[in-house]
Amino acid sequence: MTKFLAAAIGLVSIAAAVTASPASGQPPAGAAACSGCHPVSSRVSSPVVRLAGMERESIVRALQEFRAGTRTGTIMDRIAKGFTDDEIQALAAWFAAQPK
Amino acid sequence: MSLTRRTFLGLAGAAVLAPARARAQTAGPRVVVVGGGFGGASCARALRQLEPKIVVTLVEASATFTACPFSNAVIGGLRELSAQQFGYARVAADGITLVQAMATGVDAAAKTVTLADGRRLPYDRLVLAPGIDIRWGALSGYDEAAAAVMPHAWKAGEQTLLLRRQLEAMDDGGLVVISAPGNPFRCPPGPYERASLIAHFLKTRKPKSKLLVLDAKDTFSKQRLFQAAWAELYPGLLEWVPLSKGGAVTSVDPATLTLTTDFGKHQAKVANVIPPQKAGRIAEVAGATDRSGWCPIDPVTFESKLQPAIHVIGDAAIAGAMPKSAFAANSQAKSCAAAIATLLAGGTPAMPKLINTCYSLVAPDYGISVAGVYTPTNGQLADVPGAGGLSPATAPRGARQAEAVLAEAWFRTITGEAFG
């Protein structure tokens, strides 16, 4: 089971989003959608990884491997194919900067 | 501002929304969200998170939300309806003013929403997330009285329980018929997940019974996965009749539980009629629906193409390649909130990327999924080429089990984001 769930993408940290200004500090394209599966709230129990504060490089590597098909996923392999290298870098930077 | 004060203001009406203590809030722009489902509740919360200066009011007639995802498991006897129900206390705790009332009118020129009791709520931006309404009478014989006998169960709640009770009361050996509508409709894989879980119920509890799915279409969501699983799990029990083989139901008779197609009549012991649908009524009242009954929108901002400053998200919207699903509504809600926050600050909304993730249960321990990534292309939300798609056609049973586990986690997470 673990290998199916050992995925990595993002979520919107509530705390960080609150301090962001709408004009400049919004999450990058695609980031807001991630929290439908990757929980933000500590009240939610889920085997899906929480990515706030994850290391930037591990997010990039996971998304690139899912996209290339070299990492097994249930659904992230299909979703990662929708993002470019630049978008992956932006997502990883965003989530790495969110407080855990 | 305290929750008590904000709640009080919401109940007392918009006319008094300006006490000194609330100046910081009331000085900010006002967004009214109508509809407290996956789209509306998520949008209200995202707006507050993005920009606390925005004064957000959520208008919802029900005190409790009853979720449709996983309601097929309630029908199949695998889950209780209470597991589908959520209150709005935590939404209110985010500083959102809850107004428990029916929105009955929208004045797009004056920018006000009218409630059933006559109160008017002014807005700078309005978000409509009304979900679906049934097109009563679009299928001959199917009106509200017929739904009390042949439940649609396409809005979760009492209808869900009615269908479950009918299945439980049926003698073994009975014929169950599901009528599936033509596109577009809420939850494209929903009729087929329902067929699967009813088949599971019959197989385990009333194995001499038969399930017939009469379909107004020749193709459907996750089709090859469903059909492979049906052949494996429910052979001889579940039969799907496509449009081209006479599947389209042209009329129903609730007095005799008869469904008529161009090819013949089927008399059921239990009949689940999933009827044609349209955007929830307030969208039509607001002038945001086109002749299709759904709402054309800008794919970046979700602003109505028919009414300025009114945004439409979720099932009611014409969202291009995005299906009418809870996850799509939640994803659209957050994109729409970001666009509104930017517009209210005088900026230009960025091009969004949206995601849909949808799991279906074919059996309690057998899950399948579809995913998609979307971006505005030529004025429509289009699939990002090469992304998304179905679970593998062949996979070890462990992968199907893992998807069933992920489906439950999906439900906890998305309901947590919207209501928890």
Structure, explained:
The complex is a heterodimer of chains A (100) and B (420). Chain A is an all-alpha fold and 100 residues long. Chain A has a single domain, classed as Cytochrome c-like domain (Cytochrome Bc1 Complex, Chain D, domain 2). Chain A has five helices and no strands. Chain A has helices at 2-5, 14-19, 56-68, 76-80, 85-96. Chain A is globular and about 35 Å long. Residues 1-24 of chain A have low confidence and may be disordered. Chain B has twelve helices and 25 strands. A five-stranded parallel sheet of chain B has the order 5-2-1-9-20. Chain B has a four-stranded parallel sheet with strand order 13-12-11-17, with helices on one face. In chain B, strands 22, 23, 24 and 25 form a four-stranded antiparallel sheet that branches. In chain B, helix 8 (190-205) runs parallel beside helix 9 (223-233). Chain B is globular and about 65 Å long. The chains are: A mainly alpha (100), B alpha/beta (420). The A-B interface holds A 1, 4-5, 12, 14, 17-18, 20-23, 26-27, 29-30, 32-41, 43-48, 74-75, 78-83, 87 and B 46, 49-52, 327, 330-331, 334-335, 338, 341-342, 344-347, 350-355, 357, 369, 371-373, 375, 384, 386-389, 391, 398-399, 401-403, 405-406, 409-410, 412-414, 416-417, 420.
Summarize the structure.
The complex is a heterodimer of chains A (100) and B (420). With 100 residues, chain A is mainly α.
